Amino acid sequence: MHVPTDATAHLIRQAYDAGGPYQWAREGWRNSEESGATRIVFDVERQAAERLGVLRRVIIDNGAGMEPDDMKDFLTTFGGGGKPIGVDSNFGQGFKSSVLPWNSYGVVVISYTPSTPEGSMLWIERDAEGNYRLREWDIEDELGDVMRYDLVAPGPDPEHGCDWSRIRPDWLVTGTIMVLLGSKPDADTIDGDPDPSRSESAKGLLRYLNSRLLEVPMRSNGERVDTTVVALENARERTADRRSTRDISITTPDHRTLVVHQRKVNGLKHFIPANAVTGSAIKVDDHGTEVQWFYVPEPQQAVDGSADYVGQKPVVVVNYQGEAYHADTSFTRYRQFGVTDEIRGRTWLVVCPPVYSDQHPTKWGVLTQASRNMLIAKGGSELPWEAWGDSFYNNFPQDLADARDKAREKTTVSSDPDMAKNLSRILDRLNPRFKASRLVAAAMGKIAGFPTGLKSGAPTVRPVKVVAKSSGSAGGAGGTAGAQEIIAAFPGGPVTGREAPLRGGYPTFQWKEFAPENQKYLADYNQKDSGTDAEGNLYQGAVYLNIRHPVFVQEMAYWSDSVWPKADPNEVRKLVRRVYGEEAVAHVVHAQRLNGSVVGKDGDGSVQRLGPEDVEELVTRPALSAALLGLVNVEQRILTQGGGQFGSRANTA
Fold it and tell me: Could you tell me the end-to-end alpha-carbon distance of the chain, in angstroms, rounded to an integer?
């Protein structure tokens, strides 16, 4: 099976669009690393900069280099290129698809090997029809005949302001040089892809490589692959003394002086502070997936290094063959693992799943899409974030729990001693009527999933009172089936289960300031925030209420200033917070109890039920916020309870 030549450009463009910013840098670095290089430099081509003022990005390595025929295969074969092809290795299209679309004028590749010490050079470009081809040169032989060649020795090129052979640095014996020419002869490519939607820059390139590589690989000599990114800075703000003594500079034809900064790439883990608290990795599934965790205690900065080198927030990432995928700093991702807002900004999580391989097609693992921009699980499904998060949460590291509890002492508003009693009364009315539908392990079950490590009746679930029996055995007539293992549904999971109605634990509520991106919401729910309430009872989940939201601010002012102006305003606000908190909890619990409820039948007569995804929609931030607006019953409860505590309302007439 072959791809028509005129279709190749479309495939390259499609693969380019699927990739993200700086994908070309990842592909270039990986090609160099796999060639055995010990030194890789993302440099600027100095000759054209000084002669023409054109700033071209150059990738240089001291690897094995490519023989002339291999160079042609590398540049002209889409889906090949001389390296092993497979889902766990290469697809043969990465560098080409990530770099050619925005370098239509050309990419020059020069390579040096023991058999070609003077070097071999190819230039690939896009023609007027949109297809890619190798540029040809007219070369006169010793007999005076002119021949056309697409593979030549590097040499002088006045038109482009450089001698291609002089780009080779002194430290390169064998290796490869790639010059990115952009879309026209005078294009600047030092900042990368000029597409505005990608927002690339030289400094961004440094941050990208430091964030994409988890750890820079170690060579047999005990040293890591030396990777350098060169960035240029206008020298106007620097003194002449500093420029002459410390900095290398480039002077352009228009008399600009550009200072050359050479900065090292060390990998993401390098920026986790050395004093971070860590422990054994947590196993989160039966396939061997583990989660490494690191917590940075105060007053140490949560990230070691400046913003020029790496993002200034800890992240959750997936480790795939030494690279960081799916980097996420959001509270949503952290909450999946039970990491609450109090410690999110100081906690790093690295998920390490097995790699799916052609050599072991029956084993579960993860693999990368052809664009190398995201990971998928075996079978093409999404990564099992919920299952991983549930398992980590159920085996939550004690050090993280201690850090969370210590941080919570500073941020959590103290609870009314009667809160637990009021919540219990509300939930006792709801629990007998609405039971949570959970997925429990069953040999004959029809729903696949992952074990969560949680059992019905575990401490995190509100216990059901069982009458003691004379026999210690479970089951039998009039007995109980005993604790059942709870699993998380996921296609292709290793165990099967069935739905079963189980009574769940109850959430609590907390008043707090919301993060800037969530200040517009009244409430938020975190199912994996657990702890003890005012009476020492375990709770499961927490509803957060935005203490700074205008609706609540106005409510507090109304009740304390207009209704009971003579009462202690702190006590009035405490009452208002408690009633609103109980109302929010009641919404969440009622929604959870609807899981599995029959709501009707479709046109074919099939039963329609509310599932976990439906319940999640009912407890999203927008849904909870809407549910807390215009509550006449809440105001009546505040008035009734406050009347007994503060007396009759003030006469505002």
Answer: 88
